[in-house]
Amino acid sequence: MTTLRTFIATALLGLTLCVGSVYAADPPSADAIQQTLDKLPDRKLPDADMKALQTILQQTLTYLGNKQDYEQRLADLKRQLEAAPRQTTDNQRELVRLKATKIIPVAQRYATLPVPQLEQLLVQRTTQQGDLQKELAEANSLTIAAQTRPERAQTEISSSQTRIQQINSILKAGKDNGKTLSGDQRNQLNAELAALNALIPLRRQELAGNSQLQDLGNSQHDLVVEKTARLEQEIQDLQTLINQKRLAQSQQTVTQQSIEAQKAGGSSLLATESAANLKLSDYLLKSTDRLNDLTQKNLQTKQQLDTVTQSDSALDEQINVLKGSLLLSKILYKQKQALPRLTVDRNLADDIANIRLYQFEVNQQRELISTPSTYVDNLLANQPPDDVTPQLRRTLLELAITRSDLLERLSRELSALLNESITLQLNQKQLLSTATNLRATLDEQMFWIPSNKPLDTEWLETVPDHLSKQVTTLPWASSVSELYDGLTQRPLLFLPLLLLIGALLWRRKALYQRLNKVHLDIGHFKRDSQWHTPQAILINILLAMPVSLGLALCGYALQIDARGQNANLGAALLQIAQAWLVFYTAYRILAPGGVAELHFRWERPQVHFLQGWVRKLGLVVLALVAVVAIAEHQPAALADDVLGIGVVLTCYALMAWLLGRLLLNSPTHEKASLFRKAVGLMFTALPIALFIAVCFGYYYTALKLSDRLINTLYLLMFWLVIEATFVRGLGVAARRLAYARALAKRQAAKEAGDGEAVIEEPTLDIEQVNEQSMRLIRLALLGGFIAALYWVWKDLITVFSYLDNVTLYEYTSGTGANISMVPISIGDLLGASIIISITFALARNLPGLLEVLVLSKLDLAQGSAYATTTLLSYVIAGVGFVSTLSTLGVSWDKLQWLVAALSVGLGFGMQEIFANFISGIMILFERPVRIGDTITIGNLSGTVSKIRIRATTITDFDRKDIIVPNKTFITGQLINWSLTDTITRVTLKLGVDYGSDLDLVKDLLLKAARENPRVLKEPEPHVYFLNFGESTLDHELRMHVRDLGDRNPVIDEVNRFINREFKNHHINISFRQMEVYLKNLHGQEYKLVEVDTPAKPANDGGAQEPPPSKLD
């Protein structure tokens, strides 16, 4: 019965295991898939279908390759696990043997070897060192992989099993997403299933042997580290021995030449030649010293380069292996701290040039003395025959042979020196480049990975224990002792700063008195000046400097000492000193009756509010910068920094509350511009974002951003003060100009004899400041602010390149065989947002700025500047729109069809709007009307004030703005009174009585026109007698005026002149007359005539009766 049960259970278990593979078939062979892929072009499929099928076949080949790779790796892993215990034991024994072996000094082992053999041995040891570096990297990779393998393997096995179930379900149904599977798709799924079935045993085998692999990696690591340390020491000793032997040879040569120089005796020729040899030997000794120094530097640089290169090559593997683990952040922190401090020799280029030049001179001397006997004969040929002796010739010949040998050795030494210099220069450049790239990669990875666990309930439960442990583990006693020693060991070094602090404290009362005197001069039309405000700000800075200098002095002393925690405390004190200087200065500027209130004319409630706000924010920033400075210098301890996290979160919360209060509750928040509100909202959101980042475990990221946030806050406060100072300076300049004009006006009045005039003191009015000057100053300040902002954030700009790795979507690029998928990342989305912001800012501000800076200084026709700036804004908006779409993957070759379709559709539905838009473009280009032109269109007359895309605004003579569609200007009849010439003709018509003197009428009319200064002489005025009217002789006066504004004044002045002169010359201006007849009921008819009745005195105070009517 038991046997039967066992059989049934086994059968059921086998059935369960096999049911998942019922619908799976054997995977296809790679050769068959490759043949299908090669014959794919012969099938003449559409491009889309061919592309999809090609992708399926290529993916199938990839899965089949992965399957073979997993199977091979599994076989290699089994062999490695079989040999792992023996290899671990051998490594441990070898390590014990190495540590027990006494190291024989290199100088003892190779003392008898010559320099060439020692140099060859050094090359061999350097090659061995490179091999050990590779072994060390392999051991580190093995250890790191073993440490993180359990969680990674379990996750991968779980996801693989889930995918296997999905594939089996798809194969069972025969459909994927509602579509029937094709044969190629089935092959792809079977190949993927086979790869997953090969991967799971590999991961399980790795889990089973993980402890053995970790032991093997640790043993290899320890053994290689010991070998590397011994080999590095041997290389250093070898190089030292080589340097000593070279130096000894050079010193021996110098000694010999010194003896030869002493033997020269009284012969001037021998003395000169001996001195030349001695000089060459001295230079040979210096070259040897320099060569030894460069060789040592080259060796150190090469070792650093090998270490950095090895770390750089292993970085990607570490990131892939430890992705998502907190261990990665700790490893990256240690690697960054282990990066070498680079000291590049800036003089190498000049040294190389000097060596080449001197080598050329040495070669010339070698050619000159190549034949010593000939050289000696040439020397003796210039000597008197009596002085030439055989002994002198022999001695000179020996000196010449010695010099030839010296020059030969010096030439070899210079060649070696040149090679070492060039090698060192190349190695330093490569080390600088590699280390810089590695540092940037480390910063990028450290910025975007969590450094701590998320602050969840589990973390909150462990806070008391971690806090107690952190406080108790701090070396309080030693830290206090080290702090005291660091502050007291160098009193003389800091004596000048201490004297400066004492002087500032001693003169503090005088500074207050000087500040009050400056404040009293503000507003006085003679004593006030533009330098009063900078002087007052400088005095406030001096008042803040004693405490700031004291803190900075202590911080600098601790950083020089650098024992224990002194370096971290020193960095914190330096940051506190900077924060104190900024915020206390701002607090003094905002004092009642201070710079902000008297100089900047800020409202008193606003100043009072800001002073309290700055005091509170300053205390928060002091605490925050201290914690940030200490934490940034201890990145490896961030995971256990509970105290720092608590302080930072509290400071973020308080900062967000204070910034929000400034944004919403400030007395002048309703008057703030949109730009300042946006900046305030951004600054309020940043602490909140940093608070959330810390809660999610991004403590290091928050610290890096906090530092930049605080520096940006300093920069913004400085910008506001500088802007207010410039505004105040321009206001003082405007006031002085107004005062000077008032003095000039009074002087002119006195000279004209009008008597003394009382000069009223002009009041300071910022609105009088020249608008162009304000724009230029704000532009310069904005440019400086942007440059400083870039300087603050430049070291973090590179970390945002990590966003390019986060893909949002992909789009197709190219056609036919060149088609490819291009990813769009978060970095592209951020770039598009930046382009939109820049486009909006440029389109809004650049045209006006161009008009102020350039166009206003050019002699342009009326309206040209407006047309230029308007078209420029359209171009900027169009380029920005196309650039944004291109950044987001919407290329023009795809967009043009959409634009064409929309143009056709909108062209019918919005015909009038498009007609007005095109008409607006034509108006700007052809300029039939311009800004400021006086026009008449239909029954509407006025001045053009605005030209927009759809319509143009006309201001009529009643000061009413009338919106006219642009199409009207193109299709309708338009009168532009000032398009080409502002001269217009004014015509006056009048009639005189019959019988008037026509010549006199003509003369008087011409006189009226010619004597008016508004009437032009050319064309001259004319008078014409045009018509015999019913009761008038009709005349017409035609005259021309220069400007449209002269028309109505000319008509008024000429009419008054004509009326006056005609009355003086008894000429009547005819007017229509009407005779009125009244008829009564009896048929009697009477003509109404004017009756002149003399005035009579009133009778008895009664009213005078009207005359009787003839109808009575």
From TrEMBL:
Record-linked InterPro entries: LSM_dom_sf (IPR010920), MS_channel_1st (IPR049142), MS_channel_C (IPR049278), MscS-like_channel (IPR052702), MscS_beta-dom_sf (IPR023408), MscS_channel_2nd (IPR006685), MscS_channel_C_sf (IPR011066), MscS_channel_CS (IPR006686)
Gene3D superfamilies listed in its UniProt record: 1.10.287.1260, 2.30.30.60, 3.30.70.100
One GO term describing the cellular component: plasma membrane
Subcellular localization(s) per the UniProt record: Cell membrane
Main localization category: membrane
Transmembrane parts of this sequence: 491-507, 536-558, 570-591, 612-630, 642-659, 679-700, 712-731, 776-793, 821-843, 864-885, 897-925
UniProt keyword Cell membrane, yes or no: yes
GO MF term list: mechanosensitive monoatomic ion channel activity
Keyword Ribonucleoprotein found: no
Residue ranges annotated for the Mechanosensitive ion channel inner membrane domain, each copy included: 491-809
Pfam families for this protein: MS_channel_1st, MS_channel_2nd, MS_channel_3rd, MscS_porin, MscS_TM
Taxonomy, superkingdom: Bacteria
Alphabetical keyword list: Cell membrane, Membrane, Signal, Transmembrane, Transmembrane helix
PROSITE patterns: UPF0003
Residue ranges of every copy of the Mechanosensitive ion channel MscS C-terminal domain listed in the record: 986-1069
PANTHER family linked to this entry: MECHANOSENSITIVE CHANNEL MSCK, POTASSIUM CHANNEL RELATED
The family this protein is said to belong to: Belongs to the MscS (TC 1.A.23) family.
Name of the protein in question: Potassium transporter KefA
Organism from which the protein derives: Pseudomonas antarctica
Lineage, top ranks: Bacteria, Pseudomonadati, Pseudomonadota, Gammaproteobacteria, Pseudomonadales
